[in-house]
């Protein structure tokens, strides 16, 4: 009988099996996450094909320089998350928590920049649909660009928030000694999730910010 | 007759080892979760059935009968939404799949029992939201939510969309759980080539669930945003393209019809073997055609858009790809029939439903090929012909499979036998009632009666009356089933461990099974559905 305190679940038969199941489950979940974004990417493709010039012009309203900083932040944070997995496999709980905290800090920085950028769009009137007030761009196409911009970055930001919560929970688990060199499935799959959220950004960044 | 009857049954079962309400509500046992889903989807079926009867009664006369035109629009929308998302999609996988899949694989539970429990509550939350929208003011867009009407309709479209979005997560979790369970929790001896075909069917379904459902979720969310924030994605005034919605919607919703029909085909395979006492003919072909259907299903969505301004070439390609599905389906039908051929047929009620299934599936499939022919579809599109086509498959075939599963696994789930004669009467009524309901609709459609219309020319009345009469027979048949099944729970004769003498692996456990399915570790020593080797009775 599994006790409430043991993380090993009896129905898996073996520990490797539990770990394998968790990984597979997470990969499937990541697959479905990718498909959640596809509509937006498809929508982007279609409307960029309809309104190529407007998309180029609209993209100039975005802070590409800051987006590059954001990209660097996320890529580095992924490195730290990978380190966390490395450390926990050796059972170094404190170091694990530390590198996870660093990664979280970068994530927060990312969201901070995003928030600032949103605020700028707000004042400028670069908003989706009905709220669109930019004058130098036609509504047809211009409002669509910003609709897609807010949907893509917004959905991504929501994922960032979830992923930050997840890392926070992992930090707490690592500090309270729940994860050990033997049992660290949550760190591994949680890390996978963080990487995925990163990868989404790696697609969003060029599509929105580097349009030519 | 019953080789394994009378073998030892467990005294402590999943039903009686704990009986408090919270032991049900907080259970992680896949069997209890399956039973909860069964109750929920049957309630959904009831609700959808009430909506359907209102529609059919309204159509008794050419003019207004009992409700107003606006109410009529709401009724067909709510009927479609309830039947498709609250009943059809979760029905077989979440209820019967949850119950038997782990047992068939010799596992103690699914891979993620807690997530499995969560899927129940997510379903309840989504269904609640949908019901809330229905009670608030309903929706009148049709279950397809086509833009731009769905973005401007004054009815409560948003909560219903959100409800369906939420239910999608329940489906995704179920799919994820099944795939992981198949990969990691097979008992010793359960090689890939021994996996029961019902499990293969669920596996194929699960892939579609995981891959397609998020796409639907997102597009419904986009319609919601469009309504609430006016984002303009599908709004031509802001440069948007309403037809894009149709692509995104059908990219999910066409594969979704295979989410409904593949598990049904899996049930049929199990039942055919059990009641023909014969090894399945063409195990590999059946499993492979499941994946063929799942795969092709992703590339045929455009057949819903022949008249939406799609290029003729595109329509042709989509038409041909759609017809491929019929080939895979035909393979299965040949295999079922070949399995029955020369078997020692035991015509119990589950098999009666199978015969109904095969007949209706063939009709539905052949009319599918007919409407996939672009030039013919221009005539039939958006008429009752389409309504008849998909009801033949979704209601006819899938519901037959649902009822077959319900009767076949009833002793397994509850340890009781249902009354044979009453069930025969109900099954015959339903099959006959079904044909009376929907055959006239093919004729109506061909005569040009459009779907989703409140009124019709007087000369079409007799066919409509016929259809309503059939629907009443259906309602009668269902009520009969409800009564005798509930009766049997209390007064029914106790079942033997394997009342059908089936070789399905799930009958290795007791009926009803012990809390963790098996009292000793199961081992699989023969091929699945193998009736050539005699077997000592056993129940772990
Ligand atoms: C041989 C396989 C099949 C083919 C070739 C086929 C073809 C088609 C075509 C071409 C249409 C569109 C007709 C129109 O709107 O003008 C259609 C509609 C439909 N089919 Fe099928 N089909 C097949 C099997 C199925 C199955 C297995 C199901 C369900 C389990 C199904 C459910 C539906 C539904 C729900 C619609 C109508 C959607 C709506 O507009 O409300 N079909 N089918
Ligand atoms: Cu279709």
Automatic annotation (TrEMBL), chain A:
UniProt domain Heme-copper oxidase subunit III family profile: residue ranges: 20-212
Location(s) in or outside the cell: Cell membrane; Membrane
Spell out the GO cellular component terms annotated for this protein, sorted alphabetically and separated by semicolons: plasma membrane
| A biological process from GO | aerobic electron transport chain
| Predominant place of localization | membrane
Instruction: Write down the superkingdom of origin.
Output: Bacteria
Q: Which UniProt keywords apply?
A: Membrane, Transmembrane, Transmembrane helix
One Pfam family name is COX3
Which stretches are transmembrane?
24-50, 62-88, 94-113, 148-172, 192-211
A GO MF annotation of the entry reads: cytochrome-c oxidase activity
Topology term for the membrane? Multi-pass membrane protein
Write out the similarity annotation: Belongs to the cytochrome c oxidase subunit 3 family.
Protein name in UniProt: Cytochrome c oxidase polypeptide III
Q: Which organism is it from?
A: Archangium gephyra
Give the taxonomic lineage as stored in the record. Answer: Bacteria, Pseudomonadati, Myxococcota, Myxococcia, Myxococcales
UniProtKB/TrEMBL annotation, chain B:
Q: Tell me any Pfam family this protein matches.
A: COX1
Q: Does the keyword Metal-binding apply?
A: yes
Every copy of the Cytochrome oxidase subunit I profile domain together lies at: 18-525
**Where is it mostly found?**
membrane
Which membrane topology describes this protein? Multi-pass membrane protein
The domain of life is Bacteria
Give the CC-aspect GO terms: membrane
**Which GO molecular function annotation, any one, does this entry have?**
cytochrome-c oxidase activity
Q: Where are the transmembrane segments?
A: 33-55, 83-105, 117-136, 156-179, 200-229, 249-269, 281-301, 313-338, 350-372, 384-410, 422-442, 462-487
Give the keywords, sorted.
Answer: Electron transport, Heme, Iron, Membrane, Metal-binding, Respiratory chain, Transmembrane, Transmembrane helix, Transport
What GO biological process, any one, is recorded here? respiratory electron transport chain
Q: Where in the cell is it found?
A: Membrane
Q: What is this protein called?
A: Cytochrome c oxidase polypeptide I
Q: What is the lineage of its organism?
A: Bacteria, Pseudomonadati, Myxococcota, Myxococcia, Myxococcales
């Amino acid at each position: 009988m599994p006790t409430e305190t043991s993380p090993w679940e009896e129905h898996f038969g073996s520990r490797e099996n539990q770990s394998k199941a968790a990984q597979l489950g997470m990969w499937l979940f990541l697959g479905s996450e990718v498909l959640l974004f596809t509509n937006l990417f498809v929508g982007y493709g279609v409307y960029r094909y309809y309104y190529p010039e407007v998309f180029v012009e609209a993209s100039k309203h975005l802070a590409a320089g800051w987006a590059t900083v954001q990209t660097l932040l996320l890529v580095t944070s992924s490195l730290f998350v990978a380190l966390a997995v490395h450390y926990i496999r050796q059972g170094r709980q404190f170091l694990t928590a530390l590198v996870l905290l660093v990664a979280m800090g970068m994530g927060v920085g990312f969201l901070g920049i995003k928030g600032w950028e949103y605020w700028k769009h707000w004042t400028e009137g670069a908003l989706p649909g009905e709220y669109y007030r930019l004058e130098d761009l036609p509504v047809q196409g211009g409002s669509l660009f910003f609709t897609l911009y807010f949907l893509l970055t917004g959905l991504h930001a929501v994922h960032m928030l979830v992923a930050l919560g997840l890392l926070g929970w992992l930090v707490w688990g690592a500090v309270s000694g729940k994860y050990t060199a033997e049992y660290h499935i949550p760190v591994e799959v949680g890390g996978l999730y963080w990487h995925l959220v990163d990868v989404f950004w790696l697609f969003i960044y060029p599509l929105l910010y580097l349009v030519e | 007759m019953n080789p394994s009857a009378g073998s030892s049954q467990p005294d402590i079962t999943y039903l009686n080892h704990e009986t408090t309400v919270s032991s049900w509500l907080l259970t992680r046992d896949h069997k209890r979760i399956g039973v909860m889903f069964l109750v929920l989807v049957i309630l959904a079926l009831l609700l959808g059935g009430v909506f359907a009867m209102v529609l059919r009664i309204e159509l008794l006369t050419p003019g207004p009968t009992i409700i107003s035109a606006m109410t009529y629009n709401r009724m067909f929308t709510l009927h479609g939404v309830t039947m498709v998302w609250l009943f059809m999609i979760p029905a077989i996988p979440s209820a019967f799949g949850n119950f038997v899949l782990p047992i068939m694989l010799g596992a103690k539970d699914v891979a993620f029992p807690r997530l499995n429990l969560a899927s129940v509550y997510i379903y309840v939350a989504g269904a609640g939201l949908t019901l809330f929208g229905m009670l608030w003011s309903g929706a009148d867009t049709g279950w397809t939510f086509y833009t731009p009407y769905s973005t401007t309709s004054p009815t409560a479209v948003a909560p219903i969309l959100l409800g369906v979005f939420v239910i999608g997560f329940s489906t995704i979790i179920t799919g994820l759980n099944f795939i992981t369970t198949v990969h990691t929790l097979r008992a010793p001896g359960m090689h890939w080539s021994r996996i029961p075909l019902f499990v293969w069917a669920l596996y194929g379904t699960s892939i579609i669930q995981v891959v397609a459902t998020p796409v639907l979720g997102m597009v419904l969310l986009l319609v919601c945003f469009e309504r609430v924030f006016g984002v303009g994605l599908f709004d031509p005034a802001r440069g948007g393209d309403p037809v894009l919605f149709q692509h995104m919607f059908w990219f999910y919703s066409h594969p979704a019809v295979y989410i409904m029909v593949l598990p049904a085909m899996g049930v049929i395979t199990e039942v055919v073997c059990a009641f023909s006492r014969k090894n399945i003919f063409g195990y590999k072909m059946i499993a492979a055609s499941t994946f063929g259907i799942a795969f092709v299903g992703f590339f045929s969505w455009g057949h819903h858009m022949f008249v939406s301004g799609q290029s003729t070439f595109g329509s042709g390609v989509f038409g041909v790809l759609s017809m491929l599905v019929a080939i895979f389906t035909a393979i299965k039908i040949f295999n079922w029939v070949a399995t029955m051929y020369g078997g020692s047929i035991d015509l119990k009620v589950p098999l009666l439903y199978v015969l109904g299934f095969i007949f209706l599936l063939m009709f539905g499939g052949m009319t599918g090929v007919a409407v996939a022919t672009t030039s013919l579809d221009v005539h039939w599109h958006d008429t009752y012909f389409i309504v008849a086509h998909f009801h033949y498959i979704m209601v006819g075939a899938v519901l037959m499979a649902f009822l077959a599963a319900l009767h076949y696994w009833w002793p397994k789930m509850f340890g009781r036998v249902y009354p044979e004669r009453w069930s025969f009467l109900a099954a015959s009524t339903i099959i006959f009632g079904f044909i009376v309901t929907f055959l006239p609709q093919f004729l109506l459609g061909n005569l040009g009666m459009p779907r989703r219309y409140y009124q019709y020319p007087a000369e079409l009345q007799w066919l409509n009356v016929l259809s309503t009469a059939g629907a009443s027979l259906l309602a009668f048949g269902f009520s009969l089933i409800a009564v005798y099944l509930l009766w049997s729970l209390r007064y029914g004769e106790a079942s033997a461990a394997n009342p059908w003498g089936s070789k399905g692996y799930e009958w290795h456990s007791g009926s009803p099974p012990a809390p963790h399915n098996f009292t000793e570790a199961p081992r699989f020593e023969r091929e699945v559905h193998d009736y050539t080797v005699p077997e000592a009775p056993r129940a772990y």
